[in-house]
Amino acid sequence: MLEIRDLHVSVGGQAVLKGVNLCVQPGETFILFGPNGSGKTTLLMTIMGVSGYQITQGQIIFKGQDITHAPMYERARLGIGMSFQRPPTIKGLPTGKLVQLCARERPIDLDAMAQKLNFNTFLERDVNAGFSGGEIKRSELLQLMAQSPDLLLFDEPESGVDLENMALVGHTVHDLLAGKSQVLSQSLREQGRNRKTCGLIITHTGYILQYINAHRGQVMYHGKLCCEANPHEILKHIQEHGYRECLRCLDCAPAKEVLA
Amino acid sequence: MSVDLSHYSFDAQAETDHVQNLTLLPTMDQVRMVEAGIDVHDQQVSGAFMQLNNSAVHCNSKVPGIELLSIHAALKKYDGLPQHFWKLLNPDEDEVSRLAKEKLNGGYFVRVKKGAKIKEPFQSCIFIKGHKAGQSIHNIVIVEEDAEVHILNGCASAKEQDDVLHLGLTEYYVEKGGKLTFTMVHNWGEKVTVRPRSVGTVAAQGEFQSNYILLHPVGDLKMYPTLKLEGAGAVARFNSVIVAPNGSNLDCGNKILLNAPTTRGEVIARVLTTGGKVISRGLIAANAKPVKGHLECKGLILGGGIIHTIPELYSQEEGVELSHEAAVGKIAQEEIEYLMARGLDEDEAASTIVRGFLNVDIMGLPQALRESMDEQIATLNAHSAL
Question: Is the separation of the CB atoms in B280 and B252 below 8 Å?
Fold first, then answer.
């Protein structure tokens, strides 16, 4: 589904990603760990095609197409959907209207979808205007439900979300990854397509792992991926040892051996 | 920009002195009126007035709570309207006012009777037709104690290419506890000169909401309507949505004088230029305390044009709360990209953001008018704005 080959990315002239290789299979959920500033967000932004993330080397292949230099909307229409951590406010655009735009020509039951996220009272409000952290997350999820992507990019689903809403966010992410969006009138072909939904998720706390079936994980450190393993094991290791070990392992050992 | 008043003829009368129904007017004229927000079918309105050049051709009040007369009839009936005619405006103020007094050719008198809450809006259409035609009207609007009304005022010229002059004077009186919403939509052309002069006064606990929408080119428009809040608790709000395509020259603003304790005023303007020149003014003056006022002007330049914002605050009292914010910019790349990440291409994203910027939802317009404005804003996006 997604293949990243030797990706090098600079932000503001500074190299952030220094040769990232990653493969996410259809239906697979991949978890990215790593300390602040290691390049996780840069990787997600680059896959989405946000400006300011300059690819200096490497390739991004999605569904067999080279999207390394494709405009954002083409990536979105091809099936990449991203939850932004700090999305901009858009004055005069009601959230409900944006959700309709996300669905493009597909019919959706906006109220039912909003109901699921307990977000109905926000549909008339301008996009992200004065939203709290948890409200932003629910707004992003609602848009993604309408967009029904095949690859879900999610930067820290837990940040700014209280415990009660964490369950709501967690279950919604689970459903999105399971291909259970609220889009009505899905043809069998579309349903089949949704079953192949895959995810690339950044987490620091690991709370999201309680709600989703995470298949694989890897640690990003200094712009490189290392330590591929079961995400739960990685989390446990980080909780016990921090990221010190990653530095050591990057310096001296092939990634997989450390956690094996 | 000064106006050569001798350039225009103020003698032009309408071809007809009475129009029973606006749908009987030429279709092209009706189109121009509809663009100015007029419901030509006169349905869902509490009354309607139409001024065609210098003749009041349609004067029809459907509800007992509204007294509607042409200005000439009102002056006759009320002995020259000594309490209201030229009481807020001064004929010696400037050349335009002097000429307006000298050439008075029409206008309306609307009185909403004490306690009357008029549900349907009242509409007035000011129409000007013919090359070098001059129009000079004077309106009086009185909202008596605890009365409520929404007046829709659509002004249009018959052809975009007509060289015409519109002088429109209005004096508003909102009495104690009265509530007036006054929505003005302009639809002129590149050779049209427009000089409105408007002053209103609001008594204790009264409310005045003024909405102004301009989506089409106008050669030379200069206006600075003023509201004076004279009684405790009075509130005034100005909302303007202005689009200035190439060929537009606008100097417009809103003024609120907070002359009594606990009055509040707000001026909000959204200005989009796609090649036109706009001076966007605003003044809130505090002459009493405690009072509150906020002034906001947001400008967006797309593909050329000039925006000059002049927000002013004045206070001669300690302890007032006045603020202003003005910003001129472009569409934020971050917003464009956010929408592109949802599958909108760059043009769709930009149009969506511009539509949001020109949002008229806060004006509380009747549904038909809001839809008509939304539709026009959507076409702007497709053609001129982007």
Answer: yes
| Preceding omega of B311 cis (within 30 degrees of 0) | no
Exposure on the CB side of residue B17, measured as CA atoms within 13 A:
1
What's the maximum distance between 2 C-alpha atoms anywhere in chain A?
Answer: 55
In 3D, which of B155, B112, B128, B91 has the Cα closest to residue B12?
A: B128
Residue type at A79 in one-letter notation: G
For A84-134, what is each residue's pLDDT tens digit? Answer: 999 999 999 999 999 999 998 888 999 999 999 999 999 999 999 999 999
Tokens of B379: 């076409």
How far is B139 from A149, CA to CA, in rounded Å? 58
> What chain B residue is nearest to A47 in terms of C-alpha separation?
B341
> Could you give the CA distance from residue B10 to residue B8 in angstroms, rounded to a whole number?
6
String of b and e for A18-49 (b: at least 16 CB within 10 Å)? Answer: bebebebeebbbbbbbbbeebbbbbbbbbbbb
d(CA B133, CA A114): 56
pLDDT tens digits along B218-233: 999 999 999 999 999 9
Domain borders along chain B are 1-171, 339-386
Q: Using N-to-C axis directions, what is the helix angle for B333-340 and B346-357, rounded to 10°? A: 120
Which tokens is B110 given? 């609307």
Task: Please identify which residue in the block is written with the tokens 């609001």.
Answer: B202
Task: Decide if A101 touches B, using CB distance below 8 A.
Answer: yes
d(CA B39, CA B48): 10
- Partner-chain contact B338 A87, CB within 8 Å: yes
| pTM greater than the 0.80 cutoff | yes
What 8-state DSSP symbol labels residue B9? B
ipTM of the complex: 0.91
**Residue at token pair 């415990």:** A163
Distance from CA of A201 to the nearest CA of B (A): 17
Residue ranges and CATH numbers for the domains of chain A are: 2-259 (3.40.50.300)
- Beta carbons of B294 and B266 less than 8 angstroms apart: yes
User: Chain A 8-37, CB below 8 Å of chain B: which residues?
Assistant: none
